[in-house]
Design brief:
Radius of gyration: 30 Å
Number of strands: 36
Strand order of the largest sheet: 1-36-35-34
Number of helices: 0
Largest sheet: 4 strands, antiparallel
Distance between the termini: 30 Å
Helix content: under 10%
Structural class: mainly beta
């Protein structure tokens, strides 16, 4: 089962220059005084022998030239280079950038089954190192960076019919995990979103055989989960994306019967969900990314076994979705989407089904990557990863590079230890 993290967004600020206007300087000579010391009025002729001063015309101001804005650097293609490998192959795990810039990789499916192990990637050295292990085995869980720097690990799948309500906290200061309050419901393939007030919103997912509409909130101050309003639809494999005004957009997913095109908004001020405009296509296992201008890109996924190649944009101002055209590559599951500092969105890997237009089928797992550019509203292919990957992770580093970790290179699946860096 795959997981999408809400992640969050794309706008380009452009510099504007204004020409300054030169000041108008005027010098007027005073009229000559009469011999009696009186100043003639405007309507009185000057006495004989005393010349009248002729005003000197002011100089014509020269407008300042309008500066030509210096164009910014042209966004380039993505290049992928190998970096250090993890100690364990992993898929359906989490990768979370810590406040000190390192990346915490935790859990997932590995060679021996569900993993408890965790490790840290250091961008300064390009290497992974072991850290404390989780208190329980899990994959398809969520990981959320809290305001105090700790990481909340919640729910997931423990193998077989074991679905988890347990949660734990990773403390970077000690390099250890510790148990915190459990969720009200067991959940896997759910979402977790950090709210503006520091709490964490958990939505939907699957509890054994039940698709959930319920939601709950974790409060770091108490270490407890509490119920909040429920969604209008049961959902798993949906996306959750924070909007600039603090609300959370929940989009798509599957209700246990069909893929969904509906979307709804969670308002932390009221603790309730309300409907918003529907997507142009039903989809699950899709990707979503918050753009810098406040809109949300939704792309790919599958629809009841079929592939969705389209993208669309949600506008919070109008509460509607609009088409963003076709992706460069069909991606129906296990892809990642990362908003870059330049505003573009880098989409990597995933799986693909079927053959387009009767063409020969390619590998079911992709190495291909592409950009979505909000300035043009289009998708375009870019460099490929060195390894085919699905159910991997992509984490934006502090220096603007993207760390790509783990996943599976095929649908068997094998588990990858390798990692690589995308530079743009």
């Amino acid at each position: 089962m795959s997981r999408q993290t809400g992640i969050r967004a794309d706008c380009h600020g452009s510099s504007r220059f204004r020409a300054g206007l030169a000041c108008l300087l005027a010098a007027v000579l005073a009229a000559a005084c009469t011999s009696g010391g009186t100043t003639p009025s405007a309507t009185t002729a000057a006495p004989t022998g005393t010349p009248t001063a002729t005003p000197t015309a002011a100089p014509t101001p020269t407008p300042a030239p309008t500066p030509t804005p210096t164009p910014g650097p042209t966004p380039g293609p993505a290049t992928f280079t190998a970096t250090g490998s993890m100690s364990n192959g992993r898929l359906d795990f989490t990768a979370t950038r810590l406040k000190d810039g390192r990346v915490l990789v935790a859990g997932g499916k590995g060679g021996p089954g569900m993993l408890t192990s965790a490790e840290l990637y250091d961008p300064a050295t390009g290497t992974f190192s072991a850290t404390g292990s989780m208190t329980g085995r899990r994959s398809s869980h969520t990981a959320t960076l809290l305001e105090d720097g700790r990481v909340l690990i919640a729910g997931g799948w423990g193998g077989g019919m074991t679905y988890l309500a347990a949660a734990e906290l990773y403390d970077p200061a000690t390099g250890t995990f510790s148990v915190t309050g459990s969720m009200i419901h067991k959940r896997t393939s759910h979402t977790a979103t950090l709210l503006g007030d520091g709490r964490v919103l958990i939505t939907g997912g699957i509890d054994t055989t039940t698709w959930l509409a319920s939601a709950e909130i974790y409060d770091p101050a108490t270490g407890m989960f509490s119920a909040t309003g429920s969604m209008a639809q049961r959902r798993a494999w949906q996306t959750a994306t924070m909007l600039p005004d603090g609300r959370v957009l929940i989009a798509g997913g599957h209700n246990g019967h069909v893929s969904l095109d509906s979307a709804e908004l969670f308002d932390p001020a009221t603790g309730s969900f309300s409907p918003t405009g529907s997507m142009t296509s039903a989809r699950m296992n899709h990707v979503a990314a918050a753009l810098l201008d406040g809109r949300v890109l939704v792309a790919g996924g599958d629809k009841d076994g079929g592939v969705v190649k389209t993208g669309e944009l949600y506008d919070p101002a109008s509460g509607t979705f609009a088409s963003a055209g076709l992706m460069a590559q069909t991606r129906d599951d296990g892809a990642t989407a990362t908003t870059l500092p330049d505003g573009r969105v880098l989409i990597t890997g995933g799986t693909t089904k079927g053959c387009e237009g009767g063409s020969t089928c390619g590998p079911p797992v992709l190495a291909a990557a592409e950009f979505f550019d909000p300035t043009t509203g289009t998708f375009a292919a870019t460099g490929s990863m060195s390894q085919r990957r699905t159910s991997h992770q992509a984490t934006l580093l502090a220096d603007g590079r993207v760390l790509i970790t783990g996943g599976a290179p095929n649908q068997v699946p094998d588990k990858l230890r390798s990692a690589e860096l995308a530079e743009v």
